[in-house]
Amino acid sequence: MASPGPDVMQIIRLGAHSTRAAVWAALGSTTGLTIWTVASLAGLSALITAHPGILVALQVVGGCYLLWMAYTAITDGIKERRAPATVVGTETRAPQPRGFTPDGIIKAATAFRMGFICDLSNPKVVIFFGAIFANFIDPGMGIAANLMVGAVLILESLVLLVGVALATRAVAKWMAKNSAWVDIVSGVVFLLLGVIILFEGLRSL
């Protein structure tokens, strides 16, 4: 679950500017993951299997959003590389990406929302959880047992994603120095993922 997908790249990208923002994004991603988990337990994966058009619609919307994320990340990175740094007092500050103030601060709610929407942009997650639950959940199990399996998956994801966010602190200086390239590389990953998801959705029409 912590593979280099949209969630991880979003966390790394924000971590290049602020570890705090990366942690909030990780919490947002986990919240989105919780929604997909509950939806899977409620039978959404089975509903999608029976009505593929639902997945197609989700893929088109999710793919388009990832393309938008790619655009913002790449343009932010290019702008940061091209624009001259500004001097504030005795500090030299580089241009900040969308969502950040000129002082390099981002609201917790903004970072949380970025992680939350990023996770919801990948509807294939619900299919993944559907396959997981098919192997670990027996029809005869009670609701409590089903919720326990879901809670374990959510907790695992929370630990992994927050771990990635905190790990950015170890390379904070390097990432801050190369934050423009982190934005651009993240944008390229978003672009590839968005094209793949969008292509899969449109191919099913």
UniProtKB/TrEMBL annotation:
Localization in the cell: Cell membrane
GO CC aspect terms: plasma membrane
GO molecular function: amino acid transmembrane transporter activity
Topology in membrane: Multi-pass membrane protein
InterPro entries, per the entry: LeuE-type (IPR001123)
Any matching Pfam family: LysE
Keywords, alphabetical: Cell membrane, Membrane, Transmembrane, Transmembrane helix
Residues that span the membrane, as ranges: 21-48, 54-74, 116-137, 143-168, 180-199
Protein name, entry field: LysE family translocator
Highest classification ranks of the organism: Bacteria, Bacillati, Actinomycetota, Actinomycetes, Mycobacteriales
